[in-house]
Amino acid sequence: MTLPIAEIREKVQALGPWFHNLDLGGVRTAPEHFLGDYPNIKWQKIAGAIPADLTGKTVLDIGCNAGFYSIEMKKRGASRVLGIDFDDVYLNQARFAAEVAEADIEFQKMSVYDVGALGEKFDVVIFMGVLYHLRHPLLALDLIREHVSKDVMIFQSMQRGSRDVPEIAENYPFSDYALFDDPAFPKLHFIEHRYADDPTNWWVPNSACAEAMLRSSGFEITAHPEAEVYICRVASQSPHAFPIYPNKGAQA
What we know:
The chain is an alpha/beta fold. The protein has 6 helices and 11 strands. Helix 1 (5-15) packs antiparallel against helix 4. The radius of gyration is 19 Å and the shape is globular.
């Protein structure tokens, strides 16, 4: 049932402020967004790298915010879309956005660290705009790979520092100090206090680090449609992704 535009506008104001600038029946949720028409501007750059037909596929949207990507997945015919977030404000926004879009989407309050409790794996996992808000980012990737990712993961993280992605050797001597001064060497920048006035920004990788973390958690990068976005598939074997006790040091 289509809601009157006045009712939509009133509810949008009541549920604000919004981070996703959605078009809900002609009402913009964040028309003054500092990134413009976000996240649609990012979606337009990556949409072509994601199958247009998701009929029969299941989708998990981790850190769904107001549900933009969940709704887009449903538009492509996904049989089941589950959006999870730990913020009640975002979840309430997402439920209303899905109602206006007449999209059958389930939303649950859940942390990425608890995804194992879902007890199922999904054909497509969306993990966009979350990693840099986490105190334990590699653990989150390990848990996603281990518990909920069946095939494809769409990953995005804010990045700062070098965009270069050099070839990294398997090993380096203890005496090699210089490689750590190379801006392109994989680096994860730690934010002790705030960045962009946001106290939830904790870790920001450079490009080489983002790719290395994905590989280390058992994902293979299959496409890189936008500077911060990677399309990944689950690798046949994850060499290091054991969230409880990493086995990296035990390898020959």
